[in-house]
Every structure is written in structure tokens, then in C-alpha cells.
Write a structure and sequence with these properties.
448 residues, alpha/beta, 2 domains, nine-stranded mixed sheet, 15 helices, globular, zinc, Alkaline_phosphatase_AS, phosphoprotein, Alkaline phosphatase
Length: 448
């Protein structure tokens, strides 16, 4: 099992280069360990059917299933850059490396090999296009934080389709110097930039190469969480659909497509169970799009679903021999989503928000005092955080890897997770086994 990460790569190379699969989908649920998958299925059973058990995700029903280890070359617990490099190249490296070895020399990726084999290639994600996991498939840089330099590697790879939230540092180098915007550089390299799903549909037919990102003004770091999604927000399923559409037009010699569900990791860094489970479900919706394509080309298509590492050390149960995942149904927004709600109330009430107004917002968004009954200790804890947050003093925001949230949002989420009997061991990554699922042409090679 501990060599399976190498096996993943070499099997992918085999099916790509030797024609065992004309179409290859490589789904990576960032931070999605075994318990994130199992917890999502148990959550679905409780909220959909009110029963104890599992309501399977599509990808867990694939005929091939196993596990893989995730340690990097120098750390028992990997980061997403080293893990992404391992998944993209089959080589272990140091944490923070983007498809370079310990000697800082570039390592060829499976996506680059697919391009050389004559296939079209797509690299997509629900976070920024220059984030660690997608970057590991097209870029070669010594540090994952070199966002501008990573973006400059995008046209060098010359892949056909890229998609995600946007770009983190489009005009600023790693050493914090102003630099020419990456967007004219993309356009000079022949890329059409589409902002939003409708813009993609308007531009796709005439485009030779495509970069699909969110509409102007949206947060370039990521798509919204599924639990917070508004009607016109770009989704991972739409990105997957667009990628298939674009990669199969014209001269169709097959494709290699990597799709990352990147915000599973973000939700787990924040120890936000309901949000994490919705992110896993959201990636499954993208996999459904790929599966529908597989059903049309069953003898030519391979779908592999895995992850780079587990995040948060999620625990399904905290002592009593039961879970109460039904409680998570009452959470209507993510922790960061509720932070935005509190911020809006601060503006409306000029930072003097009455407790009764806060109570109503907690009722509306977490079900407290309605579908979720609080004990005295829990209510006192919320009131204490409220008093401290609106005392007129500067507040300390709750920090996680990718978010800074209102203490009230963090406390409400913590209480609801506690009521659901879901626990967390950290706000970082862990070194546990991660799942691997496969279906289609060559899938049997992933067994054992």
C-alpha cells in the first residue's frame, strides 16, 4: 500500500500513453480522507432518509477501491504541493515543491506526458488556478507561494483548458515586485479568457485554448462553498461539463482532465463539518458529469478519484456510541458565510448589534432555539462570545489556513459540530490513509 502513490502515476501513464483509455478523468478531493467520505455518506442517509447507515456517493460505488499513503519525502505529514507533485509525477518531494525534485529540477507530469502523446489536456479546480494541486500538473517551481511565476508556467505547458476561481497574484512576483499582468500574456499565447459559465458558452466555439474563471469582481481565490452558493455562481460541475465540451471538439484524439475539489480541504482546515460534507457531495456532482460521459464511451474512458491527504483529523463520534449528523442539516451557511452575515449586521447597526438580532440570525442559519435546542452552557458560551465581540474593543478573528472568521461564526459552528458528535484533532493535515476509486478502461490496474 505504501507504494500505491507511485502505482497511481505509472498506471495513469500506461493508460494514457499506451492507449488503454482514450479519455482519462483524474479527480482529486483535496483534504478528503476516508472519514470525510464515510461521514458524507452517513450524513446523506440521515438527512435524506432519516436513517442510520450510508447513502452512497456515486464514486464510492466504483468497482475498484483501495487506499494510499500520503507522506512526502521529508515529512510524515505532507502539504498539498508535495502531495500534488506525487499525484502528478509519481515522485516524492519536499513540502512546498511544485513538480520539482529535492534537487529543484523539474519532473515531467502525467498531464505533460498526455500532451506529448497527442491528447488534449485540461487542469481544473474549485480554488485558484495557481493553487498547489492544479499547479503541480502544469508548473515547475521551488515554492507553492510563487503564484505569479506559477501562472507564467501555464502557457508554457500549452494545455488546452484551464479553469478555477481565478489567479491570486496576477501582477505581483514572489519577491513582491510589480509585474506585467498575466492576462495579456495568456492572450498573446493564444488563450481565450472566459469569465463565468455564460461567457464560456459564448466564446468556446471560436477559442483554440481556454481559461475559464469566475465573473469579474468575484473572489479569485476560490468558487463559493456549495452550502453558500448563489444562483449564478460558477460550479465545479459546470467546469467539468465545460472541460469535456472543449476537450472533445475538433480533432478528437482523447483527453486527460484533472478536476480538483479544492474546498473540501478549506472546510476541514476550519473544522466545519456540514460545509465539508457539502463539498464532498459537490465534487460527487462533478463526477456524475464525468460518469455520464463514461456511460457513452465505456470502453474508452477511465475515471480515477482520490485525494492528496486528509485534513483536520475528523472523528465520527466523540464518546457516546452514536452520531447526530441530522443536526448538521440546520446549518445553512459555512463559517465564512456566517462571518459575512455578522459583518453586514455590524454595518447595519453601526457595530451595536442587539443580542436579540444576533439570536435571530443564529436561529436562521444554525437552527439554534428552533430545530436545535441549546443547553445552558452552550447558550452562555455564545452570549460570552457575543459580549466580547461587541464590547467596542478590537476583536481577534478566528484564524484557519484560508479563512479569518468572526468568533461568533466559529463558536456557532463548533457548538453544532459538538451536538452532531463530530470531532476534529487539528486545523491542519494528517498522515492517515486516503481512498482511491476507479472505473473504466484500465481500472483493474489500480487494485491491490
Amino acid at each position: 500500500m505504501k507504494k500505491l502513490v507511485y502505482t497511481l502515476f505509472f498506471v495513469l501513464i500506461s493508460v494514457v500513453a499506451n492507449g488503454q483509455a482514450k479519455y482519462v478523468f483524474y479527480f482529486i478531493g483535496d483534504g478528503m480522507g476516508v472519514n470525510q467520505v464515510n461521514g458524507t455518506e452517513m450524513y446523506q442517509a440521515e438527512i435524506q432518509n432519516g436513517r442510520i447507515g450510508v447513502e452512497p456517493l456515486l464514486f464510492t460505488q466504483f468497482p475498484v477501491a483501495t487506499v494510499a499513503t500520503t507522506f512526502s519525502a521529508k515529512n510524515s505529514v505532507t502539504d498539498s504541493a508535495a502531495a500534488g507533485t506525487a499525484l502528478a509525477t509519481g515522485k516524492k518531494t519536499y513540502n512546498h515543491a511544485i513538480s520539482v525534485g529535492e534537487d529543484k529540477n523539474a519532473i515531467q507530469t502525467v498531464a505533460e506526458k498526455a500532451k506529448k502523446a497527442g491528447k488534449k489536456v485540461g487542469v481544473t479546480t474549485s480554488v485558484s488556478v495557481d493553487h498547489a494541486t492544479p499547479a503541480a500538473f502544469y508548473a515547475h517551481q521551488p515554492d507553492r507561494n510563487m503564484n505569479y511565476e506559477i501562472a507564467l508556467d501555464l502557457p508554457k505547458a500549452n494545455f488546452d483548458f484551464y479553469a478555477g476561481g481565478g489567479f491570486l497574484k496576477p501582477t505581483t512576483t514572489y519577491d513582491k515586485k510589480e509585474a506585467p499582468s498575466i492576462f495579456p500574456i495568456f492572450e498573446e499565447a493564444g488563450y481565450t479568457v472566459a469569465r463565468g459559465y455564460n461567457d464560456y458558452k459564448a466564446k468556446a466555439a471560436k477559442a483554440e485554448k481556454m481559461i475559464l474563471i469566475q465573473e469579474e469582481g468575484a473572489n479569485p481565490s476560490c468558487l463559493p462553498y456549495a452550502i453558500d452558493r448563489k444562483e449564478n455562481d460558477l460550479t465545479l460541475a459546470q467546469i467539468t461539463e465545460s472541460a469535456i465540451d472543449f476537450l472533445t471538439k475538433g480533432n478528437n484524439k482523447g483527453f486527460f482532465l484533472m478536476v480538483e475539489g479544492g474546498k473540501i480541504d478549506w472546510a476541514c482546515h476550519s473544522n466545519d463539518a456540514a460545509t465539508a460534507f457539502h463539498e464532498v457531495m459537490d465534487m460527487d456532482n462533478a463526477i456524475i458529469v464525468a460518469y455520464e460521459f463514461y456511460e457513452q464511451h465505456p470502453d474508452e474512458t477511465l475515471i480515477v478519484v482520490t485525494t492528496d491527504h486528509e485534513t483536520g483529523g475528523i472523528v465520527l463520534g466523540k464518546g457516546p456510541y452514536t452520531l447526530n449528523l441530522q443536526a448538521l442539516k440546520s446549518q445553512k451557511v459555512s463559517e465564512s458565510g456566517y462571518t459575512k452575515i455578522v459583518n453586514e449586521l455590524r454595518k447595519k447597526y453601526k457595530n451595536q448589534v442587539p443580542w436579540e438580532v444576533i439570536k435571530q440570525s443564529l436561529k436562521d442559519n444554525f437552527g439554534f432555539w428552533d430545530s436545535i435546542q441549546l443547553n445552558e452552557k452552550q447558550e452562555a458560551s455564545l452570549k460570552k462570545v457575543y459580549d466580547e465581540s461587541f464590547s467596542g474593543k478590537e476583536i481577534d478573528l478566528t484564524q484557519s489556513e484560508y479563512q479569518q472568521d468572526e468568533p461568533l461564526a466559529a463558536e456557532a459552528k463548533r457548538i453544532l459540530d459538538d451536538i452532531a458528535l463530530v470531532g476534529w484533532t487539528s486545523g491542519g493535515h494528517s498522515g492517515g490513509y486516503v481512498p482511491v476509486f476507479a472505473i473504466g478502461a484500465g481500472a483493474q490496474l489500480f487494485q491491490g
